[in-house]
Prior knowledge:
Elements: E1 4-13, E2 19-27, E3 32-36, H1 64-78, H2 86-97, H3 107-124, H4 129-134, E4 143-150, E5 163-167, H5 174-194, E6 198-201, E7 207-209, H6 214-227, E8 237-241, E9 248-249, E10 252-255, E11 260-263, H7 264-277, E12 280-284, H8 292-302, E13 307-310, H9 318-327, E14 332-335, H10 337-340, H11 343-355, E15 359-363, H12 373-380, E16 384-390, H13 394-410
Helix pairs in contact: 1-2, 1-3, 2-3, 5-6, 7-8, 9-11, 12-13
Bound molecules: 2-phosphoglyceric acid and magnesium ion.
Amino acid sequence: MSEIRRVSGRRVWDSRGRPTVEVEVELGDGSIGRGIAPAGASRGTREAIDLRDGGARLGGFDVQRAVAGVNGEIAPHLAGREGTDQAAIDAALVALDGTPNKARLGGNALVATSIAVLHAAAASARRPLWAHVAAGAPVTLPLPEIQILGGGAHAGRRVDLQDFMVMPVGARSFAEALEMTAEVYLAAGSLMKAAGKLAGVADEGGWWPVFDANEEALELLTRAIGHAGFAAGRDLAISLDIAASEFGAGGRYALGLEKRQLDTAGMIDLLGGWLAAYPIVSIEDPLAEDDEAGLVEFTRRFGDRCQIIGDDYLVTSAARVAHAGAVGAVNSALIKLNQAGTVTETRAAFEAARAAGMSAIVSARSGETEDVTITHLAVGWNAGQLKVGSFARSERMAKWNEALRIEEATGAPFAGRGALAPRR
Length: 424
Ligand code: 2PG
Ligand code: MG
């Protein structure tokens, strides 16, 4: 009775006010699941491609064709199939699309469908999603990575770097981690306001800074941790997403804010200087996705003391994660559902990271919704880390708050500092 009875797609709206795809799946036993596709702004070139209508209307972002594909092609293709066999459903979706990057039906249509099927199966088993995906294995509450300042493509490129985040490494529980972060978020906002450096909030809810140099953000963040009454490094540490593919290619990096160009060696030295001067425990995409030699060199020099995450470079691909592990390009993998396009492929990338000895961070996108699936995956897969954006706006807070509920319901341990790479 858990065969798929109904699949329906509709257009809903994301946190940037752009159209996105929602899919609802109903099984024969009446269980219903729902999934909504998120959307990135700084994307890796090898990600699954969202199907957008283009043209002048709605900035070209409309998804009528993707929704039509759900209702016209995906629904009849999945009807009658076993809804609890996620791997078979996802394989059927990939085969139906037929392209290597999901461009025909759209990564947005596929990922929303795949998530909806997963939720329906959990409902059919009468289990919360985290428990359904854990399948009896031990779980932990993830160490959160929370944005305080937003930059890069999420804030009009006012600073070059994209995410200035904190990780509450001294917290003993997820609840305490959020409370500590709330103090730092407030402190950062008031320090920036007092200094005349606050321009609003960026796409993921972090403060939008008016700085003259990228390093000012690091100084401010370190000061905000202290101002909130914490020890920088011991209680809360800094995590950066450089998103270097946004301003670098072919071994050249153009820092627009500081009006200077660096080569790969210059970027590595710049970041190495920051690692020495600030309590940084994690750096994502320190070099561009096409700069594998640079990533290998960066990891060789700093991988023994800092988590080095691949996002644009790995694009949640099991094959790319395995390759990166073999060449030593990063020691951690960002895991995003819509980069891969289905739950099964996302899980495979996560398992590849584990097999390569890397840490893993389940991550949201800059365009999000009330969908809280990633919180459940981070807990249920025992990923250890979760990246959702800032500590404001309900598409972010919904995901943090869901983890509070899971922590209360399970009493599961908090992953804490031990979740970070390098794994010892
Ligand atoms: C990233 C994400 C989240 P986007 O680069 O890690 O910050 O951004 O969804 O725009 O790719
Ligand atoms: Mg990133």
